[in-house]
Amino acid sequence: MFENIGNTFKNYGEKVKKSAQNFTETNQLNAGIRDTDKKIEQAFASLGNEFYNSHLENVPPEYTEAFNNIAQLIQHKADLVEQLNKLNNAWKCPRCGASNASQMSFCGNCGCPKPVPTSQMEGQEQQEQAHAEEEKPKQPIMFCPNCGTPLYGGEAFCGNCGYNLKKDADVEATETTNEASGDEAVNSNGGAPEGTENNK
């Protein structure tokens, strides 16, 4: 009797052990199947992506609908990204297309400088011009020695004929420096120029 009970427990234990082994193997096989399915999916996606990109210029007639559908989805995604960027005040890199936070002055992906919007550039130019106009005196302070155009100061070249005004300014500065040097020489010799004796 005890022998039969012992055999029953032994058989039951072997069944449980076998069942556990089967469960483990089943899980491993299922995981392997899922992993393989994922790899097959990736391979198909890669093949489809390569096929799509290599036939963009010459779409096979039987795939026209699929190509159009993909193009619409790509455009839809681009629209959504643009909306998201506007919502977050982000800007799109003109070089690589990466999205960047509004406070970034350079693209975090490729280092491209943040583009200045045309309207903002025009606004800045208008402000600079208005500021320059305010700073200009109403009466000209000189006239171009070449063409006679009124000049208001600060110009390096004449805006009318392109004459180099800086050249004249450099000549004047040199003459002024030479005169000052001569005066210093006179003062250092007690009022007499260098090379002469003071006849007192």
Automatic annotation (TrEMBL):
InterPro entries: Rubredoxin_Fe_BS, Zinc_ribbon_dom, Znf_RanBP2. Residues 174-200 have a biased composition (Polar residues). Pfam families: Zn_Ribbon_1. Residues 117-136, 172-200 are annotated as: Disordered. GO terms for molecular function: zinc ion binding. Residues 86-116 form the RanBP2-type domain. Keywords: Metal-binding, Zinc, Zinc-finger. This is Zinc-ribbon domain-containing protein. It comes from Candidatus Weimeria bifida.
